[in-house]
Write a structure and sequence with these properties.
The protein has 404 residues and is of the alpha/beta class. The chain has 3 domains: 73 residues, Archaeosine Trna-guanine Transglycosylase, Chain: A, domain 4 (Roll), CATH 2.30.130; 100 residues, Transcription Regulator spoIIAA (2-Layer Sandwich), CATH 3.30.750; 191 residues, Vaccinia Virus protein VP39 (Rossmann fold, 3-Layer(aba) Sandwich). Helix content is 28%, strand content 28%. The termini are far apart.
Length: 404
Amino acid sequence: MNATNPGQELPQLLLKSQADRRLKKGHLWIYSNEVDVERTPLKQFDPGDQVLVCSQQGKPLAIATLNPGGLICGRVVNRGISHPLDKSLLVHRIKQALALRETCFGGRPYYRLVYGDSDLLPGLVVDRFGEYLVVQMSTAGMERQKDAIVAALQQCLRPRAILLRNDHSARQLEGLSDYVEAIGEVPEAVELVENGVRFMAPIATGQKTGWFYDHRENRALLQRLAPSKRVLDVFSYVGGWGVQAAVAGARQVMCVDASGSALDWVGENASLNGVEERMQGLQGKAIDVLKQLVAEGESFDIVVLDPPAFIKRKKDQRAGEAAYRHLNELAMRLLARDGLLVSASCSMHLQRSALNDIVRAAARHLDRHAQLIAQGGQGADHPVHPAIEETDYLKAVFARVYLP
């Protein structure tokens, strides 16, 4: 391979006429129907191969990793054509990502270190918990670079251990098998600090990487609103919202989750912060528990809804929006006079305006008025790629709900 310009030695992937427009605007994805398959058949490539992406006229545009069987068949890893994806480029990208997090969070090493496309490492997610890292690879291109990724992370951060949590559904779209692998000695749970509150995150057995850093700023706002309030945290997981509300001075917090083990961790995290006497766990499906609480005449000053994504694909749109509205109506029925609803969605296919409208419609159905007092999104460790709207996925609406 040419040492001065190894990218030129990569096999070419030719695009159709005008198919380079999105790439020129900054997008990183190449769809299979944009490839000139007559001149560069996709079937000649293996999953994870790197290619030199060229315009129809043969002008080099970028280097991308490839998965010939996917709708998104290519993902740009470098707009320069001299450096393909390898340990050297990974170290460079990770250092760039680390610089942003250190600027935003200083010496507090608890954040999403790498956020895929937004950090120009499509298919790679890395969450940092002090001296421990949890890594997820969701593309064939990143899976091919597994050893280089581990080596680059070790060089840049010198972690005590790295856990590869490659057991998530996104891998199925790339034809990748699931596995979990530890590099070094990885404990069942690790400590983190968010908004001044301590937590244990079950990285080995919990959801995704064990924690959800994306709501950091929204939870900080809840802290300012929680003192002396009675709070219901629905889909609580390990208590990210509820424990922070209790530490901030909420008089009582009830956490609801379908997982008994998640609620056990709520108890652990409550004890870790000395607020266990003001916290209660209730296990069950969210809809069933909310209906039960309504029937029992319960009321809360604040209800937090942070459900999983109800709209994973565009064809789920109508059913997903109906589910969000039903959930929000039940939550509003539990609000005390002048109560506050915190309604969140991580469905990238649900627009912010749609969530606002769901809250409005739910309130009007109950003959109440909703005032949006704040709207939030993901934190700085989940930066948005301005050309890829899918990276801007998180919404949180803070709404006062009252009888006018």
